[in-house]
Amino acid sequence: MSKIEKALNKAKSQRQEVVSTGHTVENEESSNRIDSIQYEQTKVIKVSEATLQENRLTAFFDNTSIADQYKILKTRIFQQTMEEGLNTLLVTSAVDNEGKSITATNLAISLAKELQQTVLLIDADLRRPSLHNLFALSPSAGLSDYLSGKKPLNDLFISPGINKLTMLPSCKKVGNSAELMGSFRMKNFVEEVKSRYKDRYIIFDSSPLLGFADALILSEYVDGIILVVEYGKTQRHELEKALRLIKGRNLIGTVLNKSPFSKKQEYYYQRCNK
Ligand SMILES: Nc1ncnc2c1ncn2[C@@H]1O[C@H](COP(=O)(O)OP(=O)(O)OP(=O)(O)O)[C@@H](O)[C@H]1O
Ligand SMILES: [Mg+2]
Fold this sequence. Notes:
Helix 1 packs parallel to helix 10 (236-245) and helix 3 (65-81) packs across helix 4 (100-112). The chain has helices at residues 3-13, 49-54, 65-81, 100-112, 131-134, 143-147, 177-181, 184-196, 214-221, 236-245; strands at 43-44, 88-93, 118-123, 158-159, 165-168, 200-205, 224-230, 251-262, 265-271.
């Protein structure tokens, strides 16, 4: 058994507790409250199928092995979230470059293909935003502009032309990302998007857990965490450290990315016992 498999088994056996994501917001300044979101104002910028293919957003295409893997992931997520009304999910990893953004985006596309689901995909990686690149978009403003009070939210949403999928990009790197992530505005924003529509999943792409506080802060606001592990790259000690950091939060599962187990199976989902 490989080191990663052992660490994954350890993660599986580790009991994860669901913690309350409720926030006390009574004392907030009114300026921190978010405006009512008008999704009907969302800009539509149709992304070509060639772009989706080139950027590995293959969950879009039916009857591909990756799309099938995402169907399995999505089904497991439904099983663990739907009944309890858990709809805000953070995709993160121990270190960088393990496939968080690709996993978050493919998962969002896959969920949006469900008849009853709408999906909001949010680029909450303010250190290294990339979702706009995956869709070959060049937004002039993003989440950090809203969090720093420069833009209203309604100016920021983009539909990439995939039915029922809306995204909120982040287009520039910011230096004070942890501060913005921990702001009342961010907390309120997550509360607002969480409660507005019952049949919507909100997927947050984030920075890695080790080295920066951003993803850890965001993990306090969301209902569940999906941890991406890159086969053969993530070190056992990194994974264990990441798991320690999120101990007590609702780790819904891990995705083993770039797995060579089978050519047909690039993603392998491991449920974590609650
Ligand atoms: N399953 C996969 N098979 C092959 N290549 C992949 C796979 N998943 C991701 N990649 C590639 O790995 C690189 C990193 O992917 P991605 O940007 O999704 O990672 P990330 O964890 O979001 O990185 P960062 O920490 O920089 O935000 C990209 O070049 C992407 O195309
Ligand atoms: Mg990324």
